[in-house]
Amino acid sequence: MRNLDEILAFNRDFVANREYEKYQTTKFPDKRLVVLSCMDTRLEELLPKAMNMRNGDIKHVKSAGAIVSHPFGSIMRSILVAIYELNAEEVIVVGHYDCGMSAIDSKRTMAKMLEKGVSEQTFSTLQHAGINLHKWLHGFDRVEDSVRNSVETIKKHPLLPANVDVHGLLIDPATGRLDVVVNGYERTEASE
Fold it and tell me: Is the model's pLDDT at 189 over the cut of 90?
């Protein structure tokens, strides 16, 4: 059975058996928290369990590497919407050890794009338009630095309220252990 067909068949039973009832909550995060994490499959269930989060506790935003690549991109917009429209009051950026974004090779990725039908002409057009695919596809060298950079991008955003604490953590995808990279409370207390 193809993935979509399998999903839809399961969903019919899920709804018919009213299994959704145990997940019902409001659109407002109970813990008033936004979590930006990597999209790594190992974190799908591990991260919320390791942080003691249940359905309805947080707004969860994901990107490759938990990177905020542009201060006015969709990741930052999602964080700001969670704060201004959904009553979130804190942000936690969670990177992880053994992240694929630390090993991404833009040349290899572009070769795979060519194999899947993207043309050299497309690369040329993008380059002519000023888009450096090698830079755009680059992840990071050290995950700790990447988490710090994302925290800084969020914290220094001109539209972020000054009283919003922004934290940075790393999670071990094997054990769930959390390590603090940036304690946003300490930063707030130091600026007071």
Answer: no
